[in-house]
Amino acid sequence: MEDLRLNVALLRRRVPNLTRAAKSVGLRPATVSNLSTGKIPVGRAEVRTLVALASLAECSLDELIIRGEKVEMIETGIKALDLFAPLTKSGTIGLVARPGMGQLVILAEVFHRLKQQGYQTILLEPEGKHPEVDDISAYIDHTFHSIEEAYEYIAKLSNKTEIVFAADRSHVLKGDIQNLQERLQNIGVDSVTTFLVDLKGEVVDEDLPYGPLETLLQFDADLAARHLFPAVNPIYSTSSILEGAHLDQTHLTIQQRAQKLLRRYRELRAIVNVKGIDSLPETEAPLYKRGELLEAYLTQPFYVAEAFTGQKGETVPLTDALVDVRKILDGVNDAKEVKELSYVGKIQ
User: Fold this and answer.
1) How far apart are the C-alpha atoms of 278 and 269, rounded to whole Å?
2) Are 91 and 215 spatial neighbours (Cβ–Cβ below 8 Å)?
3) What is the pTM of this model?
4) Distances from the Cα of 48 to the Cαs of 15, 27, 58, 220, 233, in angstroms?
């Protein structure tokens, strides 16, 4: 099948308040979000949905649907991200979390790792007082106080270097981010990968909090409460890279098998919490154990947290992570204890 995806950048520019606009024409914001990230393939979308989106963006279907263009992944060495929600290069990545779930820690970690890969890191200072932002300042090359300052600097760099740019949702609501992205596109700058965070924690209550995204990182309150970090939900986090011809088939197969296991594990865990492990049927016990092992394996020591945890940060190449996860799924590690896979790099 021909590789198809939504022109998310065009939607973002043309329809700033997509949640309200989608509802006004009878579309569910969740459907629009899933189409944008690729969770729902464009090829499976209802024609009326695509027509309605094209009408909102005042464009043709040919402009709305991009054919055959490869979306490039940024490999971070963070297992949970690379496996379940790969970062889209030059795309927009939204972090959905309440305060205390570790969104700024993961932002700092990603910036730290990408700086090692030669990226420049830029922060647009959030509105209001947010002292927690000071904790990530060591991983920011440049902080700007206005969107105009950021634009002038990025425009001057042109495409000479890759850039990761972070901003708070307050700038999204004002239209600053859409404006910046449109101006950069107009001068041919396509080297900026944008991270959007919500420092107030209101984003979890919105249907489409940042507008259309290429990558959605949904944080999980249960994982955070059990101190399983990064607390990125491996089932609800997603990326446009996971659809079409953008992802290696082996990666896609393992990712889908892992998600299926984790869904069932979560169902079983609810039973175990009430009735105990002995209440599980013999056929389900191995699935529960593998779910526990996989959940533990997705934790990871971060470089930016070394001073607090006393653990050395770990980078796991995607090829190694895929091998490890496949072994967990196939039962190769059934004899291991959960603590043996907690906060490690690759499995030894």
Assistant:
1) 12
2) yes
3) 0.90
4) 18, 10, 15, 33, 31
Distance of CA 155 to the CA centre of its chain: 26
Residue with tokens 């088939």: 249
Q: Hey, what are 2's tokens? A: 């021909």
CB atoms within 10 A of CB 140: 18
Pairing of strands 65-67, 142-144: unpaired
How, if at all, do strands 73-74 and 4-6 pair? unpaired
Q: Are residues 224 and 253 in the same domain?
A: no
What is the full DSSP assignment across 212-250? S-SEEEEB-HHHHHTT-SS-B-TTT-EEGGGSTTSS-HH
Q: Assess whether 300 and 331 both reside in one domain.
A: yes
Residue 195's SS3 state is strand
| Judgement on whether residues 136 and 203 belong to the same structural domain of the protein | yes
What percentage of the chain exceeds 70 in pLDDT? Answer: 98
The span from the CA of 89 to the CA of 71, in Å, is 7
Query: Which tokens go with 35?
Result: 């189409």
Residue 5: its pLDDT value, please?
Answer: 84
What's the token pair of residue 323?
A: 């091998």
237 phi and psi angles, rounded to 5 deg: -75, 145
Report yes or no: 207 and 33 within 8 Å, Cβ to Cβ: yes
Query: How many whole angstroms separate alpha carbon 329 and alpha carbon 297?
Result: 12
Q: Count how many Cα atoms sit within 13 Å of the Cα of residue 79 in the half-sphere of its side chain.
A: 31
Per DSSP, the three-state class of 123 is strand
Angle at 171 between CA 117 and CA 236, to 5 degrees: 65
Domain that holds residue 49: 4-67
Lookup: tokens for 29 = 């914001």
Structure tokens at 276: 């105990």
- The whole-angstrom separation of Cα 314 and Cα 262 is 23
Q: What is the pLDDT of residues 35-65, one digit of tens each?
A: 888 888 888 889 999 999 999 999 999 999 8
Tell whether 157 and 78 lie within a shared domain. yes
